[in-house]
Fold each of these.
Amino acid sequence: MAIQKGKTEFLMGIDKVDQLTMWLGEHPAAQGVAFIGRSNVGKSSFINAIFGKSVARVSKTPGRTRQVNVFKFDWLPEGEKVPKQFYLFDVPGYGHAEVSKEMGHNWQILLSTFFRGISGKVLLLNLQDARHPLQDADLQFQEYIRQFELETYLVFNKVDKLKTQSERFVLQKRMPEIYEQNKWVKQIYFASAEKGTGVLQVVDGMMSFLLKSLV
Ligand SMILES: Nc1nc2c(ncn2[C@@H]2O[C@H](COP(=O)(O)OP(=O)(O)OP(=O)(O)O)[C@@H](O)[C@H]2O)c(=O)[nH]1
Ligand SMILES: [Mg+2]
């Protein structure tokens, strides 16, 4: 894989709106990818599966991360001589009940500042739980991010947790509905950060996007 594992570098965790506004202002053409999705869905795990072990912190308790984590990584696209620099964002979960109201409000502002200000050269990877497709919180969040018109791919994570035939059948049966609801999304993947299933496909999709964003 062309992304050098272990070379991804954590830059900062931003939890202040002013700081985020400043960062976005200073990086109007940032290229890269942002992992978004509800708490505990496996964003940090997925980042680690792609970028190398322990790049991002995996939570034991959901809803811990309350900041936009910014990383940078190098990637050498085929045909290029010099590696290009990209940004990686770990944007913590929405839809977590235990967050206090006040924190929730600050978080909403931080999120809208992020989506409004981030460059169109950043791909959104929205993770959802393969066991519970089309949950209200996910659908509402999608309604919300759609307005920002950023390219979005959907990743149903934790497919390894669908252990029995009948559990997998439930997902199969809902496929038409899943595709119907997500027509606006450019790609849909089924994957497991833990087992590595489907991770390469997501990487491929991500790389095609990054390549497109270079021109
Ligand atoms: N079985 C299984 N467990 C997973 C998978 N991905 C993540 N997990 C587990 O799910 C829990 C949450 O994972 P995280 O990566 O911290 O989730 P997150 O989306 O970053 O959570 P927040 O930072 O709180 O928003 C951890 O216990 C992971 O080990 C997967 O594909 N399969
Ligand atoms: Mg996380």
Amino acid sequence: MDKDIKEGKSLVEKLPRVSTSPGVYLMKDINGVIIYVGKALNLRKRMASYFFLPSLDSGRTDIKTGVLINKISDFETIITETENEALILESNLIKKYRPRYNIILKDDKRYPSLRLNVNDPYPFLGIVRKIKNDGAQYFGPYSSAYSVRNTLKTINRTFKLRKCRTRDFKNRTRPCLNYQMNICLAPCCLDVDKDIYSDIVKEVALFLNGKSHALVNKIKDEMTSAAGGQDYEKAAILRDKMFAIKKTLEKQVVVTNDFIDRDVIAIACRPEYTVITILTVRGGLLIGSRHFCFSETVSIESEIVRNFIMQYYIKNHYIPKEILVPVLLDDVYILEKWLGTLKKLKVRILFPKRGNKKKLLNIALQNAENELMDRVVSDSKHLDLLSRLQKIIKMDVLPGHIECFDNSNISGADPVSSMVVFKNGKPEKKSYRRYKIKTVVEQNDYAYMSEVIERRYGKGGASKPYPDLLIVDGGKGQLNIAVSILKNLGINEKVVVIGIAKKDEGKGETSDKVYMFGRANHVNIGRQGDVLLFLQYIRDEAHRFAISFHRLRRSKTTLRSVLDDIPGIGKKRKGILLKHFGGIKKIMEASIEELITLPGISSEVAENIKEKFDR
Ligand code: SF4
């Protein structure tokens, strides 16, 4: 900790020694953890704005800033030569420390994109969930799996790109049905001119970049020249292609008539959440929108937007010529320069006040506000549900933190357990845990339960935070085991435990039952069916998570035993194969060429593997 703090001097006393140069500041909490990173043109002025009351016209949300100020125990500043350097340093430090109160853009796998592997001599267009910096071209992200599949379907019908994945492509000995249907040139087996194929790839990229008007004109010219040369068959094919593209154009919303590519960024804030919405406009057509939601943000809007722009476009997202923003950014020229270097072309960031661009901003803003309201309403629904659950099972506190356990095994083989976590009624996947059962040799559900509960809560302080509510899958037996373990650990007063057991249809039961410790009969949920549904949802989530882990373990065990008999395969090579392919099916499908690319797999060993699976 800083010497001044140790000596009890206040942070305000540090201010006169802060430089007035540009630079980056790092806010730290009482444990020295960096909780916020920001940049400033004048470091002293910026730091002073935190420790003296912010003026109302500063745009800073008072509640949010108050939250940050209360947490700050110390700060550090780093001087830079220019504001440009400060911008880069701020971005690097946010990436490095992931401070709690900065916005951090995670990889959002909900939104699929299309990937065109242009480095391949015959590129393939596939759906991916992650955008990598691998030299391929990416398009999207699309708002849903449905919309990305529809686009891919249109492309596969209209353009003669290959439809098979690279692995199948390499192993083909004759063209597939797509060739007979005249929707693929069959580069897998036929000698297809690379220039002709590359022309198709360019057309697909034009189409996906929203340049359909230009594409239609190009095809029209080709059609006219084909008809002029009396190649009527080719002209008819081009006509069909043009109509197919025109049809997709009819479904798209025209928002501007200047055909410029632009992203429109809007922001909506409340103390609980900040939502950023980005509208993607390509060639004047609105082709998609995406929302990003952040909790615990404390920055002012212009800082959030700047941080968002830097994190979003560095992730290999397409950078358009123009970006519309909802607030005036004080470092707009530096940001434009930085984006221009990434894109290798001039990029403009505009804050429109009137006209069509302002209208576009308003559409984005409306969408951001709707998304924000949806989040807030959904939270209040969850709170209502949790407070009814609290009443039903007579808890002293709201069950804001719930943990639920389930086991999975087949006749005692490879037993595993799972723990899922729900915070404020919503799953918190990053806190889910999987356990391999270590101490129980025979199939015994109670013993599995007791082992994992002991492992989860038996680490003293390291087990914290404890949940408000612990749910076990099962009836009174499992419930009693869980309570007795918590009692042994001395935390049974802190955690409420319930069991949820399946209905016994043989006994005429119509719904699952909830058990509480010390009660002979199950709890009467009454008409609050949604509370029972919520508990079932948590139990089913634990079940799903346990089963998926069990399947993974079993497939690895099976794979291990199959690989055991192959000459030349020992523990190390087994590990390499498992790590690379992840399952038997993929190893079986792998070609000798693919196998020998792995470290330690010689052509002799690869042949042994092939022979084993061919047999
Ligand atoms: S014809 Fe060949 S290249 Fe085209 S999709 Fe079928 S297998 Fe792939």
Amino acid sequence: MRSRFSAFCRRDSEYLIATHKHLQVPSAEELQQVFEHTQWLGLEIVSSAQDSDSTGWVEFKAWFKDSDSGKVDAIWEVSQFVRHNQQWYYTQGQQRKVNLPSRNEPCVCFSGKKFKKCCGA
Ligand SMILES: [Zn+2]
């Protein structure tokens, strides 16, 4: 999960496609669209568990700023992973609706500053 988030940050569509095992694997072009409009702020792992030798899930919030609107938002998702030959693959995710922190709460990027003085400014 963390390695996939890093890959999103460094815009590595090859890695993202290679670690995605499902019917609807995004194309490099679709990922490029996402990259161009997204500035990643921080990754918050809410919880995770391994259900068996070869399956597990991660609940996370990936905070980002939309480059066009300048708005802060997050993907809050429970992602399912399967292991195949020592490598974990993302299969699918269930997304939830996320609430922004209030202005005086700590910033989503872990800067230690208040949200209103940092990414929420
Ligand atoms: Zn911030």
Amino acid sequence: MTNTIIHVDNIHKSYLMGKEAVPALRGVSIDVQRGEMLCLMGPSGSGKTTLLNLLGGLDEPSRGHIAIDGADVVSMKEEQLARLRLQKLGFVFQTFNLLSNFTALENIEAPMVLAGKLRRRARRERAEYLLEQVGLGDRMDHYPSELSGGQQQRVAIARALANDPPILIGDEMTGDLDSKTGFEVMQLVRSLNQEQGKTVIYVTHDPRMADFADRVIHMTDGIIGREELKNGS
Ligand SMILES: Nc1ncnc2c1ncn2[C@@H]1O[C@H](COP(=O)(O)OP(=O)(O)OP(=O)(O)O)[C@@H](O)[C@H]1O
Ligand SMILES: [Mg+2]
């Protein structure tokens, strides 16, 4: 097992708009170490979301290679990609994206049902455990509309952890939260990184949220500019 968990090698991505190719990534290479907490920053349109989508095989690069835990993502078929996303990656988005007709507990059970590894009782117990871990042991039967933004985001984080993936991917996880709540969510993510060794790669526009990372990579116009190391790493 190498120490590199995410290997991105000279990725290019253009979107076709009519007949015109709009470049979004123009030669991006990044190696993320197992257990690292990596932050991506950069102006709107610099290609951050495009890069995260490619990591999860939600879209295909125009050229270049991506390996997650040693497996080549670009050549995978849809079924393998679906399994990769379920087993290796937990996604957290800006707008929580919880299922509104499901309780907090049921939202966390959903990805476990898809993975098909646990029976009903074990799923329930794991969902309860995860909700307690994110500090929502007293909100298990609440629907998303009955939770605050920060609570909904914590449910989304628990859901991302449902199948115990080694990697957490966050796209502006704190973008819709006030700064105090955003700070609490980042503290939670940092503790998952430090205590459980989760590898985290997240995008933020807020320099204070970037301070939680080991390393910050700045993107501009589809390429990597500056890199900074933080937290004494
Ligand atoms: N589906 C798409 N079709 C066409 N062009 C796209 C598509 N998605 C993104 N783009 C273009 O690719 C570039 C990168 O977009 P991307 O969403 O990755 O930026 P971003 O860094 O995440 O920006 P933001 O901070 O605003 O979220 C932009 O120029 C955008 O217009
Ligand atoms: Mg984006």
